[in-house]
Each structure stands twice: as C-alpha cells, then as structure tokens.
Amino acid sequence: MSIYAGLDVSDKTTHICVVNVDGKVLRRDVVASDPDVLAKWLSKHCTDLVRVVLETGTLSTFLYHGLVERGVAIECICARHAKGVLSARVNKSDVHDAEGLAQLARTGWYKRVHMKASATHIDRAALRNRPRP
Questions:
Q1: Does CATH place domain 3-113 in 1.10.10.10?
Q2: How far is CA 110 from the centre of its chain?
Q3: Which helix (H) or strand (E) holds 84?
Q4: Angle formed at CA 13 by CA 74 and CA 2, multiple of 5 degrees
Q5: Which of 26, 41, 42, 121 is the most interior residue, by most CB within 10 Å?
Q6: 49 bridge partner residues
C-alpha cells in the first residue's frame, strides 16, 4: 500500500501525518526537528513510503539534505502555494497543516522548490561573512 507523509516543521518539533493512497490518515505524531529522528521514525512507521513533503522555511534546507542523505524520498514545496490549500481548512493548526501537506504529497498538486547543494549554502555563508574593505 502506497503511503505519503507531510511534515509541518517548527524550530523544536515537527508534526508528521501519514496518509494512504485514498487519503485516509494512518498515523500522526510529533517528533524533534532532527533529520536522524525523522528518518528513524519514517523508516519504522512507513514501510511503503512514496513521498514526503515539507514546506520551505528556516529549517527546510537542513532537514531536506539530512533526509536525502538518509535515503528518504522528500520534496520541498513552495510555502506560498501550499498556504492557499492549507488556509482552506477550518481549523488552522500544526496537526492540520501536516495533514494538508500529506494530502498534497498524495495528489502531487504542488510546486516543487529546487534545493541547492549544502556546499553552495556553506560557500554563500562564507562570502556573506567575509571582511569588507
């Protein structure tokens, strides 16, 4: 059975929602916003995982690259486009946002964001912090 996951990320915790191909919620949880923790949780609870979706944000680069390194099929989507779908819900909360992201992962109705390589982010940080004449 194909399953899809949505991650609603905040600074310390990440809300996870897993849905099946029919859109039925199979599992919800809250874990630390850490790639190791997320990858272990997903491998334990999601045997037939097709896709994981998270929105762009402050931790998205860190989590995206960390999960890709651990073999998770993850995609980062544009937060502005996801906002339209997520704001249509009656109750706006992290739990409902995670479910909305999982449903977007299932349907494929999202705009994927290109994530630059980790080395590019390191180079840009070094250039940004170099001494200026």
A1: no
A2: 13
A3: helix 79-86
A4: 35
A5: 42
A6: 3
In the chain, where are the structural domains located?
Answer: 3-113
What local confidence, expressed as pLDDT, does residue 17 receive?
Answer: 97
DSSP 15-70: EEEEEETT--EEEEEEEES-HHHHHHHHHHH-TTEEEEEEE-STTHHHHHHHHHHT
Instruction: Give me the DSSP letters along 93-117.
Output: -HHHHHHHHHHHHHHT-S-B-PPPP
Contact at 8 Å (CB) between 15 and 57? no
What is the predicted pLDDT for the residue at 59?
A: 92
Give pLDDT, residue 10: 94
Burial class (CB in 10 A: 0-12, 13-18, 19+), 63: buried
Q: Which of 3, 1, 6, 2 is nearest to 74 (CA)?
A: 6
Q: What pTM does this model have?
A: 0.85
